[in-house]
UniProtKB/TrEMBL annotation:
Belongs to the glycerate kinase type-1 family. This is Glycerate kinase. It comes from Hyunsoonleella pacifica. Gene3D superfamilies: Glycerate kinase, domain 1, Glycerate kinase, domain 2. Transmembrane segments: none annotated. The keyword Iron-sulfur does not apply. PANTHER family: GLYCERATE KINASE (PTHR21599). GO terms for biological process: organic acid phosphorylation. GO terms for molecular function: glycerate kinase activity. The keyword Nucleotidyltransferase does not apply. Pfam families: Gly_kinase. Keywords: Kinase, Transferase. The lineage of its organism: Bacteria, Pseudomonadati, Bacteroidota, Flavobacteriia, Flavobacteriales.
Length: 375
C-alpha cells in the first residue's frame, strides 16, 4: 500500500516534516510495511524556506545588501549548486520584518536589496531563481530591484531618479542598455498568491500601502505613481500592466517580476508542488494524507490542502486531512473532496494542550485512521 504524506505546517506548532514523522509513526504502529513517501508542502507563507530546502538541498548564502531604506544589512538566500537553483524571499532584504512598526514608510522604501540578492545568486551561478514576493515593506513597483540589475530610470531631464515609490511619477524613460548580461539566461518563477491589479481601488497602494505606513495622501500619490509608471512600462515593454493578474502584488513587484525578470507568476503551492515533483510522486498512491493548522473556508482559496486535492482529483487518489482544528461542516468537507478528516482538538483538553502535545495527538489520529482504512 502506497501512502503519500503531504502536509502544510501547523502554524506556531508542528512543522510539515514533524507532521510527516508523527503520521508515519502512527501508521507503522498498525501496518509496518506500508510504502510511505514524505512530501511536505507550503503555500509561500512562513516556513516555506525550510520546505523548499527539503527538495533543493541547498546551502544558505549570506551577503550584504541594502534594506528598505538604503542601509546595509546581512541577508540570506538558498542556493543549490547541483541544480543551479536559488530560492530568494524578498522579505529578507525588503520586508516589513526588518523594521519596527514606527519605521514603516513605503513611499520612501526600496526593493534595491532584493535585486542585490538576485545579482549575488547569478554571480554564484544560478540558472533558476524562485522568488517569493510576500511580506514587502515597499511600493516602488520593483524599480529598486531593477536598478540593482542594471536598469536606469530617468526623469524628463534624463537624470536618474532614486528608486522609491514616491518617485514613480517622475520616471519618463527606462534605459535598458546596461542590464546585467547574464540576466536573460536565468529562468525566474515568482511565488505570487494575490491577484490585485497594479493600481486603482483594488491595486497595490489602496489595498496594501496603509499597513506599510502610508497615509491617505500617500496612498493617492502612490496610486497615481503606479498609474503613471504603468504607461512607461507599456511603452517600453509592450505589456499593459493593468491586464496582468497579480501585477499589484508586493507593491508592484508582480508586474516588475514579469517585465524586468521575464518571470512567470504562479501560486506558491504550485511552485512547491513542482519542486516536489508532486504529480509524479502521487501516481498509484492509495491515499494522500495532508494537513494544516485549521481546515476552514480559506482552504478553498489556494491553500496547501486545495493544491493537494486538485492533483489528487486528477489521479483519482483518496485524500485524508489531519488538522489542528476543523471549522467546516460535512457539506464543506464534501465540497472540498476529502474522504476523511480528523482534528487534534477532538483529542486535546484545550488549545494549550493541543499545541504542547500535537505530535502525539497527530500520531494517535494516524493510528486510528490506519486501523479504519489501511487494514
Amino acid at each position: 500500500m502506497k501512502i503519500v504524506l503531504a502536509p502544510d505546517k501547523f502554524k506556531n506548532s508542528l512543522t510539515g516534516l514533524e507532521f510527516c514523522d508523527a503520521v508515519e509513526k502512527g501508521i507503522r504502529a498498525v501496518t509496518p510495511n506500508c510504502d510511505i513517501i514524505k512530501l511536505p508542502l507550503a503555500d509561500g507563507g512562513d516556513g516555506t524556506i525550510e520546505v523548499v530546502n527539503y527538495y533543493l538541498k541547498g546551502k544558505t548564502i549570506t551577503t550584504t545588501v541594502n534594506n528598505p531604506f538604503f542601509e546595509p544589512i546581512e541577508a540570506s538566500y538558498l542556493y543549490a549548486e547541483v541544480s543551479k537553483t536559488a530560492f530568494i524571499e524578498m522579505a529578507e532584504a525588503s520586508g516589513v520584518k526588518l523594521l519596527q512598526p514606527e519605521q514603516f514608510d513605503c513611499k520612501n522604501a526600496t526593493t534595491l536589496g532584493t535585486g542585490e540578492l538576485i545579482i549575488d545568486a547569478i554571480e554564484h551561478g544560478a540558472k533558476h531563481i524562485i522568488l517569493g514576493i510576500g511580506g514587502s515593506a515597499t511600493n516602488d513597483c520593483g524599480i529598486g530591484m531593477a536598478s540593482a540589475l542594471g536598469y536606469h530610470f530617468l526623469d524628463e531631464d534624463d537624470a536618474e531618479v532614486k528608486p522609491i515609490g514616491a518617485n514613480l511619477s517622475h520616471i519618463k524613460t527606462i534605459d535598458t542598455t546596461k542590464i546585467q548580461p547574464k540576466l536573460g539566461a536565468v529562468n525566474f518563477r515568482i511565488a505570487c498568491d494575490v491577484s490585485n491589479p497594479l493600481y486603482g481601488k483594488n491595486g497595490a497602494a489602496y489595498v496594501y500601502a496603509k499597513q506599510k505606513g502610508a497615509t491617505d495622501l500617500d496612498i493617492e500619490m502612490l496610486d497615481k505613481g503606479l498609474s503613471d509608471f504603468a504607461k512607461v512600462l507599456e511603452s517600453t515593454f509592450g505589456v499593459n500592466p493593468q491586464s496582468v493578474k497579480g501585477a499589484g502584488a508586493a507593491g508592484g513587484m508582480g508586474i516588475a517580476s514579469k517585465v524586468f525578470l521575464n518571470g512567470v507568476l504562479m501560486p506558491g503551492i504550485t511552485l512547491i508542488k513542482d519542486l516536489a515533483k508532486f504529480d509524479q510522486n502521487i501516481a498509484n498512491a492509495d491515499w494522500i494524507i495532508t494537513g494544516e493548522g485549521k481546515l476552514d473556508t480559506q482552504t478553498f482559496s489556494g491553500k496547501t490542502i486545495k493544491g493537494v486535492l486538485d492533483s489528487a482529483k486528477a489521479q483519482k487518489v483518496k485524500v485524508a486531512a489531519f488538522c489542528g482544528a476543523v471549522d467546516l461542516d460535512e457539506i464543506g468537507i464534501k465540497r472540498l473532496g476529502l474522504e476523511y478528516t480528523n482534528a487534534v482538538m477532538h483529542y486535546a483538553k484545550n488549545l494549550e494542550d493541543a499545541i504542547e502535545n500535537d505530535f502525539n495527538y497527530v500520531t494517535k489520529i494516524a493510528e486510528n485512521f490506519a486501523k479504519k482504512h489501511l487494514i
